[in-house]
Amino acid sequence: MKGSPMSFRTIRSRTAAAAASLTALALSGCATMGGPIPSASTPITQSEAQQGAEANKEIIQQFGAAMSGSQAQYVEGVGQRIAVQSGLATSPSAFKVAMLNSSVNNAFAIPGGYVYTTRQLVTLMNNEAELAAVLGHEVGHVAARHSQRRQQAAQQNALLGLLGQVVGSVVGGGVGDLISQGSQYTQLLTLKFSRSQELEADALGQKYLVSAGYDPHAMATLLTSLAAQNALDSQLQGRGNATVPEWASTHPDPASRVSAAMQRAGAATGRTERDLFLTRVDGLMYGDDPQQGVIEGSSFIQPTMRLKFTAPGGFYMVNGTQAVSINGQSGQAQFTLAPYSGNLETYVRQAFSGLSNQQQISPSQIQRTTVNGIPAAYGTARVQSSSGAVDVTVFAYEFANNRAYHFVAITKAGGAGVFNSMYQSVRRLSASEAGSVIPRRIDVVTVGSRDTVRSLAARMAYTNAQEQRFRVLNGLSSSDRVTPGQKVKIVVRGS
Question: For position 226, what pLDDT does the model report?
Answer without folding.
Answer: 87
